[in-house]
Amino acid sequence: MGLFGLGKKPGLGIDIASDAVKAIELVPSGDTYDITQVAEVALPKNLITDDEIADIEKLAKMITQVRKRMGSTRVAVAAVSGNQAISKQVPMSLDLDDEAIAEKIESEAEALIPFPINEVRYDFESLGEHQTLPGQQRVLVTATRTISVDSRVQALEAAGYKVAIMDVDNQAIARACSHLLPHMHPEILDSKLPYLILDISTSAIQIIVIHQGEVAFHRFQSGGLSQLLSALDEDGSIDHGEIMAKLRSGDIDEFPSLIIQDFLSNLWNQVSRGVQMYQSNAADKGFSSILLINTGAMLPMITEALSEQVDYPVHALNPFEHFILPSKFSHLQNHGPRFVEAIGLALRSFATWHM
């Protein structure tokens, strides 16, 4: 059963973000997977704003371009934003099976889901026996408005894909990290402390705390790198691709230092607020590390600035340092941090759990 009840398992992950559609296809190989196909197509500005799709038909045409660059797989895993989904852990009797849990959720929907039940898609996952309530299990209930799922499904289906599973982006990111860390940073998993994921895209910053393999906290805030790009291109005369290329290379001397420092200071303030919100209700007050993903992970100045603020490691997570890219995709080697969610979605094809 796929999240939000959309069917069977595919082998392809498609990440529909505000700036691009990214796709990864994986096949099992020993204790890991091989990448067989990778594709990315940039999206026009304002086609997706605050996770809402302005033109489904236009998005479908962009996804069609992705499909033409991929292999023959037509069954996909995609995701809605964690900003559009609500997750809640509730205790239920250990005796309840999936069918009974579903019935209980529907009967108690008003208390569990803050939307009318006929306006949402929901799914659940048993997280195992409750640590403090004997005879109870922890059940994670996740719900989102039907329109948030259906608009993405419509675009994907119009592009020629069958959508088997709709996931949630922070769950996909957590899944990717759970697979990558034993190979790339096993010391993070050896720690009893949670780790912090910063998903920094052009349009938003998502803060995700992973504790004991589960998403313990997430916070979404719009803004992201677009604020920096706009500040560096005050009169609109500079190509943002050129700006990003210089930022990725660490060549920032020609940019006003005040603008750079302002951005880095605001970024740290956003991270600090998110951390404070999490720690206000958490037993553990520290982190084992920070993992940077998405476009922000490709900017050395962000890794350096965060490293100066904390006393634990800060890593830019590039999954293509673990997965060997086919030679025809070698030009994407340094862009791995942008594909973390797509990898997590592709990995969902091989997971046995609900989420």
Automatic annotation (TrEMBL):
Gene3D superfamilies: 3.30.1490.300, 3.30.420.40
Protein known as: Pilus assembly protein PilM
